[in-house]
């Protein structure tokens, strides 16, 4: 009952936070009238010079002249440039999927969440079978992964200062060794329990190096695309769809991690599973480090 109460309370907090959040377009409505109204008070329709000139030119013949002028405006408007541009425009989701830098961020979070979800699926059963731990002890072991995650703000600050690429590369690369070394936990002893906790703490500190950089780079790549091509995503932008892809990657990782890790443990054992997870973690560094992607093109000249 306590588990469900905690989950429901978090859902309630999430709903409340979403309700009080003000989006960018909605916030624009609450700007002061001084920011919207021009100095001359004409809202951009007339200028003071035009108004003065109209007062001088108004005469008895002016209405007649206006009546005698033919109406040259077309009855039906022709196709606008915006409408023709929309017809040949690719869907925003396809534009996003065609951006390698965004795909690198999505794959980075996929690796991160897959490893965490793999622990959720296999670690409690393994410590119960190896150490004969109960549910409480198996749950407390996850503190070794959760407490290091509290350093996320420091990682985010470092990422803002130095850029996301090499932090993400370090996170993926440094996660691989402790994952592979988890294969050493193979029998019941106090030393093995300490080793397990120590390696999990190392994984917690290295995994948090992945989340903040790739999440920040996800927003940065959309912003830079809009600056380079203001019509790429339309007036509504693409932040929502970009983070939707981010969430889809996390959902797929939540399914992928436990299923693959569980299958490997059942078929080949704990050691093979940890080795496979280590190699998988290192694969996340490839799109972040290569001559493409996370943080921008690696050979791009910064101004």
Number of separate helices? 16
Strand content: under 5%
Question: Can you write the helix and strand succession as a string?
Answer: HHHHHHHHHHHHHHHH
Number of strands: 0
Give the overall shape, derived from the CA principal axes: globular
Any low-confidence stretches, pLDDT <50, length ≥5?
A: none
Query: End-to-end span in angstroms?
Result: 56 Å
Alpha-beta classification: mainly alpha
Helical content stands at over 70%
Largest sheet, in brief, is:
none
State mean pLDDT (0 to 100 scale): 79
| CA-atom Rg in angstroms | 29 Å
What does it look like?
- There is one protein chain.
- By secondary structure, the chain is an all-alpha fold.
- It contains 16 helices and no strands.
- The mean pLDDT is 79.
- The chain has helices spanning 2-20, 24-27, 33-36, 48-57, 62-68, 81-87, 92-97, 100-131, 135-140, 143-146, 152-162, 165-181, 190-228, 239-268, 270-283, 285-289.
- Helices cover 71% and strands 0% of the residues.
- It starts with a helix and ends in a 14-residue tail after the last helix.
- The chain is globular and about 65 Å long.
- Helix 11 (152-162) crosses helix 13, helix 12 packs antiparallel against helix 15 and helix 14 packs antiparallel against helix 15.
- The longest helix is centred in the last third of the chain and has 39 residues, at 190-228.
């Amino acid at each position: 009952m306590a588990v469900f109460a905690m989950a429901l309370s978090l859902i309630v907090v999430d709903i409340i936070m979403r309700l009080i959040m003000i989006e960018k377009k909605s916030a624009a409505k609450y700007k002061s009238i001084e920011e919207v109204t021009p100095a001359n008070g004409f809202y951009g329709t007339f200028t003071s010079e035009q108004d003065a000139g109209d007062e001088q030119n108004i005469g008895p013949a002016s209405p007649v002249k206006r009546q005698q002028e033919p109406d040259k405006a077309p009855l039906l408007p022709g196709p606008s440039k915006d409408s023709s541009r929309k017809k040949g425009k690719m869907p925003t989701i396809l534009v996003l999927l065609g951006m390698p830098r965004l795909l690198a961020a999505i794959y980075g979070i996929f690796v991160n969440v897959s490893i965490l979800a793999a622990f959720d699926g296999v670690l409690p059963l393994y410590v119960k079978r190896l150490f004969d731990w109960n549910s409480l002890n198996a749950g407390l072991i996850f503190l070794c992964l959760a407490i290091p995650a509290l350093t996320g703000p420091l990682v985010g600050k470092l990422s803002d200062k130095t850029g996301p690429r090499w932090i993400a590369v370090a996170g993926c690369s440094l996660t691989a060794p402790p994952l592979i070394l988890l294969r050493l936990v193979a029998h019941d002893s106090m030393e093995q329990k300490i080793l397990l906790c120590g390696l999990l703490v190392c994984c917690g500190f290295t995994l948090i190096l992945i989340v903040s950089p790739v999440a920040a780079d996800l927003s940065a790549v959309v912003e830079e695309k809009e600056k380079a091509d203001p019509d790429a995503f339309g007036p509504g932008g693409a932040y929502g769809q970009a983070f939707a892809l981010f969430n889809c990657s996390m959902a797929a990782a939540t399914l992928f991690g436990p299923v693959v890790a569980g299958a490997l443990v059942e078929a080949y054992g704990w050691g093979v599973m940890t080795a496979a997870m280590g190699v998988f973690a290192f694969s996340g560094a490839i799109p972040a480090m290569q001559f493409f992607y996370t943080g921008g093109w690696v050979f791009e000249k910064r101004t």
